[in-house]
Every structure is written in C-alpha cells, then in structure tokens.
Design a protein that fits this description.
This protein is of the alpha+beta class and about 500 residues long. It has a domain of about 350 residues: FAD/NAD(P)-binding domain. It contains 14 helices and 22 strands. Its cofactor is FAD.
Amino acid sequence: MSEPVDVVLIGGGVMSATLGSLLQQLEPEWSITILEALPRIAQESSNPWNNAGTGHSALCELNYTPEKGGVIDTTQAVKVNEQFQLSRQYWSYLVEQGLLPEPQKFINPVPHLSFVWGADNVDYLRRRYEALKDHPLFPGLEYSEDAAVIRSWAPLLIPGRKKDQPIAATRIVGGSDVDFGALTDELVEGLVARGAELRTERKVTGLKRLKDGTWRVSGRHVVGNTPFELTARFVFVGAGGAALGLLQRSGIREIRGYGGFPISGQFLRTDDPAVVAKHQGKVYGKASVGAPPMSVPHLDTRVVDGQASLLFGPYAGFSPKFLKSGSWTDLFASIRWHNLGTMVAAGLKNLDLVWYLLTELLASRKKQHAVLQQFAPTAKQDDWYRITAGQRVQIMKRGADGKAVIQFGTEVVAGGEGTIAGLLGASPGASTAVPIMLDVLATCFPDRLPGWEPRLKKMIPSYGTKLSDKPKAAAKELKDTAATLGLAV
C-alpha cells in the first residue's frame, strides 16, 4: 500500500472544507484527500437550498434566549454569537489573502429580525431587547411595537393583520445571508489548487485502525462499484447524517451509546420578483410547543447565485434516511445494543416532540399556507411552492447524569488517541464551522496546538479570548470583518 495520507476528510461539505483549509494554512506540507460519495461536493446540508443560510449569530433566533424563572437567559445567544464571529474573522482573513475571492458570492448583508404577536410574546420580546441592547455583540439592536415602523423594516409582515393585535419586532441591520454551498466550493477549490486531492463518487464503507496507529479507509467507487482503499494518519468524518454510522464502524469506544433520529424539513419558496421585493430580511418567530429548535418558523431572504428568493418554514417531515441521498435503512442500521436503550428512553422523554412530528406530517398544504400567513397575512398560495430541505439527524445520548437526552446542537466525537474525529448533530452547524473545527484541532492535535497558536491568532484575532469581555475589541472586529465581507455594521 502507498504512503499514508496525512489527512483524509470524509464528506465534501463545509465542515470538511473548513478543517482542510485550516490545516492547510497551519501545515502546508501535509497531504490532504477529500472523499465525497456524490458527483459534486456540498450537495447535502451545505447546499444553499437545504438550509436557511442565516449565518446563525443569535441576532434573531428566539430559541437562544429562553425565559427561565421570569428572566431572559442570554448565555446561549452570546455563545453562538461569539462562535459566529470566529467564522467571520477567518473568512475575512481568507478574503484579505486572496484565498476567498469575491465575498458576495457566498455572503450578503441581510437584516435579522424577530417578530411576535400576542401580549405575552410582546412582553417577552421587549424584555429580550432590554437584555441584549447594550451587549457589545448585538450593536444597533432596534425594537418597535409600531406597525408602521415594522412595516418599513419588513413590508410583508403587516398588511392584512388585525390592527388591534399586539405585535413587536426587533431588528439588526448587520445580519447576513450565507450560501454555504458557494463557500464550500471556494474553500475546496483553494485546497485543490494548493495540493489537496478531491475524489468524488467515493463512498466510504469501512474504517479500521491498524497496528501502527494509522487508519485504513475503504469503500467503493459509486460508478462501477469497484473497491478502493487508502491509509491515513488522521481521519475526519464530516459526512453529515452518515457520520454516526461511519464512527460506529470505526470501533472507537467514544461513540458507544450515541443514537440518531432523522428529521426531514420542507420550505415554501417563492422566486416571484414582485413578492421578493417586498421583503428584505430574515424574520424569526417563536417555535411551537414541542418543536425542536431547528423548527423555529422564519421568513427568509435567500441570495443564491446572485438571485434573491424567499423561504418560509421549516415544516418538519420524516424519512428514515440520514441523508437526502441516503438509504431507507439508515435509521435501522444505526441501532446497536449499546444505543437501543438510549434511543427508546430519549423518545419516551420527548413525547411532545413525537406528537409535533406527527401533526406536521399530517398537515395539509392549506394548513402549511395558513402558518405562512401568520407572518405574511396577504401571501397567496399560488405564489409559493414546496421544496424539500436537507436531512438532519438529532443526537441521542446519555447525559452527565446517565439519563437519555436528545441534544439539539452539534458535537465532536474523537477517538483513537486523537487520530479520528467526527461531527454529529445539527443547528447551528455550518455557521459555526470555524469554532467547531478549532475544537477538533484542540482535541486531536494538543501537542501541535501551542506551535499553531501564533498563526491561528493572526488568522482569527479573537482566538482564545471572548469578544464579549472586550467591548472596544468587539466593536473593531465587527467593523473590520463587515468592511471586508461587504456587510453592514
């Protein structure tokens, strides 16, 4: 067998692309091979029509600011915003170095808004605004209960609404819309130009650690069904929903007890220029009782290939597949003796989620449109059509107390003494690709990290610190990255 590859990245999405980019900056002599099962990269969760592209920074997502004991808890919102700033800083560095040309191809300025109705929700949003308005990572946060003001921010929200209905909205003009598919394409193109190898239509089916500590990565060519095999010193499994099964096949003990439950998603979409022109923003509301965080309803401006569209959703669906291109047996194939109890217990503890999914699956097109009209009362059904978004796999595991839980975020699972790592979970996902991959570096390369830190701080100025602790530094970084990426401050 030939000399081992230094790094094998399984899956051609934004996570693998980000990790490959970071490692190529830190260790330019390392060999990198990307294995993607599909004919093209970024066709699953990184595809722009398989996600909302919000650039999740908790500017408008109300699930990151829950009410606890009558107090608005901003902890998660600040954490997610801090993470997104790391991504923005790294993208800005790559743009400045000419390694990511034309930022408008993958990121565009789009205001982020929260919008609620009903007296209780208005009271909640008012208190959320008070909790965040002076925070250095939420500059320029605006609040209004005036229908005329809200209409000037997002015209589709007001016409047709009852005048006596209590409403409120917040807005930050410094939000963004991110085409993670275009970003992935640009990152991988740069990787290949500087020596990495991209192999598409390569489906990985086996991972085995060898006696010398390297990994044998095996699989088959999708075209022709012929086998392939290579060895790697380090393996990253960034294969979206397929990551769970591959990590299980690797035999690492760290994956024991983990299960996954797939949730599909659908959006209503319109490309009608007359409708699109009436809405400029990403407007998030409050989730239904029992709905997972990724199902928070939102009406979004999307910019893909320079063209603006509107998306509304998501509406939950179900498929046992772990990827849109996956197998109908994915869910059942993921069941092991060590995770069966976890999966059953997590399901029993979350019957409200199960009920939510059932009601969503039974919802008619008319009922789905009625949900859209809660945001845009005058929306016409004929102007919108339904698209299927990407598959998401929720993590099920045992918590610190030993009890089964469903985890709605993302999680890095590493094993083999740091020679293999994989990413499980969903939202906020792609928006926090850079901090997540920094966690991979810290977990898997602790001996190299001290030598890498000066370079990392050059690429990501706030690396190792918290911008929220340094208001002046936060203001400077937000201004600098906005200028480089063509965003509003």
